[in-house]
Amino acid sequence: MNDTKRGACLCGAITFEIAPPYRWFAHCHCSMCRKHHGGLYGTGVGVPRERFRWLTGHDQISHYRATGAFERPYCRRCGSVVPAESHDPEVMHVPAGLVEGDIGARPRTHIFVGSKASFENITDSLPQFQAYPPGLDLPVAAPAQTPPTSGSERVSGSCLCGTIAYEATSAPRRIVCCHCSLCRRSFGTAFASTTFVPRQSFRWTRGRDRIATYRMQQPHSYSSSFCGDCGSLVPGVSHEVRVALLPVGSIDTALAPLPLTHIFVASKAPWDEITDTWPQFDELPPPEQLDEMFG
Ligand SMILES: [Zn+2]
Ligand SMILES: [Zn+2]
Ligand SMILES: [Zn+2]
Questions:
Q1: 111 plus 163 within the same structural domain
Q2: Which of the residues 28, 162, 211, 214 has the least number of beta carbons within 10 Å of its own beta carbon?
């Protein structure tokens, strides 16, 4: 099978193989996917069970169940969301960001747009469904919808299980979408979506002792902080930077839409098509724009 693709979590402990035909390739905007992945939305591929194979690290998987319907497994070392059983016992649900190279297919739909983040605008022309696509008769938890607040001067957020929460007294001003291969594996999606607030304005409100951190030294330094109880990405607050980095999926405040900046676009996944008109940079923006970006 030379259409076989390999996938891995951020730390590389958990690896697997997939091959087509894929049953679905969908962007899911539900609040649980957003929180678990940490991004604007999660993107998943439905892989027939006989076309899916675990290679390594199956014993590194932690299991979290948010609702009766699905388990949401993640790597206990690095927090990456990893492949899971789906509503269909014959199909595995695979986070597309973990797959290396070209999956050989393209996203087909947006699902659960009824519960998308208040600050997200969908700009492509793929079909959109309020919840599951037609023909899938599964129970749906009512989304907790709060009207967008424009110019909110505070922001609060939490992980999927609710153990960890934070707040900041200043508002995020921009979302940075990083398409690099490490961010794809960390978020399990096409790109990382992160916003930031001044570090002095940020504080944890609960669960700080439950934060797990994975640090990669080679070949690039990269770190990811996640909830040790559910695997959701949580803010990164380090002494080297003057900002707290908030994975946008963790945000509970109904913020008004924010401008985006796309970075490391030169290394984006082939299936990741940018359809908005916000600025794009092959790698990092030049230093003066970087300063402006972090305001
Ligand atoms: Zn891992
Ligand atoms: Zn949690
Ligand atoms: Zn990145």
A1: no
A2: 162
Range of the domain at 178: 155-294
Per-residue CA distances from 119 to 1, 31, 32, 155 (Å): 42, 13, 16, 12
Question: Is 137 within the bounds of a domain?
Answer: no
Q: How far is the CA of 67 from the centre of ligand 2 (A)?
A: 14
Answer yes or no: is 272 within a domain: yes
For the full predicted model, state whether its pTM sits above 0.85: yes
The residue with tokens 């909830």 is 227
For the stretch 84-115, pLDDT in tens is 998 899 999 999 999 999 999 999 999 999 99
Neighbours of ion ligand 3 (CB under 5 A): 178, 180, 183
- Rounded to the nearest angstrom, the distance between the alpha carbon of 276 and the centre of ligand 1 is 31
From residue 277, alpha-carbon distances to 55, 122, 141, 291 in Å are 39, 12, 33, 21
Q: Which residue has the higher pLDDT, 116 or 137?
A: 116
Residue range 175-190: mean pLDDT, rounded? 96
